[in-house]
Amino acid sequence: MGTVVSSDTRRRWLVVVAGTAVLVTLLGLVPVLRSTVAVGRTTASPDRIVARALASAGVAYRADGESRGGLALPDISGFGDLATLLGGTTRTRIWWDGPRHWRVDTVDATGESDTYGLPSSTTTWDYGSRRLVTVVGDARARLPRADDLVAPAAARRLLSSVGPQDRLSALPPQRLDGRTADGVRVVPGTGGSTIARADVWVDRATGLPLRVVVVGTTGGDALVSALSGVRVGRPDGRVLVPPAPPTARRSLETAPDLVARVAQESPWAMPPRLGGLDASGPLVGGTSTYGTGLVRVAVLPLPGRTARDVMRNATSAGSVLEEVEGGSRVRVGSSLLNALLVRGDDRRHAYVVAGLVEPRVLDAVAADLLASPPPPREAP
Amino acid sequence: MIRVELRKLLLRPRTWLSIGLLCLLPVVVAIFLSVTKIAPRPGQGPTLLAAVLGNGALYPAAALGIVLPFFLPIAVAVQAGEAVAGEASTGMLRYLLVRPVGRTRLLAAKLVSILVYTLLAVVAVAVVGYVTGVTLLGNSGQLTTTTLAGTTLTPADLAWRTGVMVLSIGWSMVGLAAISLFLSTLTDSALAAALGGLAALVSSTVLVTLDATVAVRDYLPTRYWLAWVDLFRDPIPWHDLRAGALIQAGYVVVFLGAAWANFATRDVTS
Lengths: 380, 270
Prior knowledge:
A: alpha+beta, outer membrane lipoprotein receptor (LolB), chain A, 7 helices, B: mainly alpha
């Protein structure tokens, strides 16, 4: 009797265990098999892959996105959600009809913040604050937004700054979310960058960047951004129209954040060379950029009062104020992005100096700025 | 057999007492909100609670958001944990099995009873939430209900989305019910079975929040519990709702199978 029962028990458990094993195997193996299914070799050179990615801004698509930043930046008042954006996981939903007609929703478990890109403005609806903010025009400089970290936008920004000294190499093609993607690796050609390498996978059919992985010199993924559920084709036009909720607080602005505001008012004529780096962008107002390729430094002049507030916020967040020749500075850094807040002894000259570069590069730029403060900008 | 179990469920005072207690918290919250007119800041507090002042039609969703994290799973785990172990602990299981019914049928009847209880609880919270919301928090009668994306919801939109939400939340409890039911076949202690189910719930809730568990996170039972919030986005992203329904189905198949394998050949001594 006992034998009959135990054999029946064994048979039943065998069915359950086998069924569970099949289920788990299917769930676990199917994604792996889909990603490793034979992918035909590409004939495109790394330069060609980069060119296709850079030309993909007009590819219309709908997708979900996820970006994961590993940058431990301090949360400084006035710099919005920068620390969260670059130091956490951001989930997005994207409807892209072109560079001047798109929508990116940043979603979390209980709310969302939706940004609509329109030909002459950008509108953001934030469910949390029930605010509808329209920013007219394109800011010369601004803080990063969630839509900047969406894989295609991040990849195009990264690849557009690659210089002739940086090295490109092909990566084995992969299947990403059911699409064949050609990979390209970028390695900085000169010292000073905090980027060890950046890998970009580009959809073979459309040129759309599907995945970006930036690895810092300290090791580990500093930024990973990827698309999933990509559907190529124009999104429904109704989705791209900003909402008009009756109870929303509305505002119309010309600068979306602190950086954009101070960039509009920059009073200094910046020099053509700083810290051994040549200027690589316009020097008239706004943010000036120095360096080439992946070793680039942005210099944003700050009004004196703003500089004092920002430095106070930074020291409150744990950064240390250092007295140096010609002024003072506060270092804010992470494994990938470093920044210096610099203020001259005259209390009038102050700057944010930032880049994906080693601190020594920023120190050299800051030293030049403090040693030779730029003269006032001439009225146009 | 199913009819017997359902009659037992519906006639038992404990069923209605537990459902009443589930409905009580949202009512208390609504009273505080209506008296003080102080809602949580948007993005804080229970889901959608910030949007209910002057818009009571949205309160069923907020009410379910209030009970979903703790009270609803506790009620379901207790009900499922009690299903077999409760009968065993009172010495009734032997007498139940004396009747000319197979153990598999008894288990199926218990599962149906748990499903009905879960659906009853969710519907009750939604209905009480609606009545409480419209009565205490007001309903302007205008089309002022908005999605998380800021677009307007018509009453018809709100009605069908709330209906799907009720079904989605009800189904999201089924995996937990299956785990507790399986544990209920392992022990004669209903409390141990319920606590085991809740331990699985807490473990899953903790693991879901960790980036380190990214490889298995999507398969955890609570991974998509908040996916019903997507019903209040525009356009509705169906992916997580579909994935959540499938994951729950997987847990039901596995743990109900395990419960069947164990219970069908188990020595019943009490």
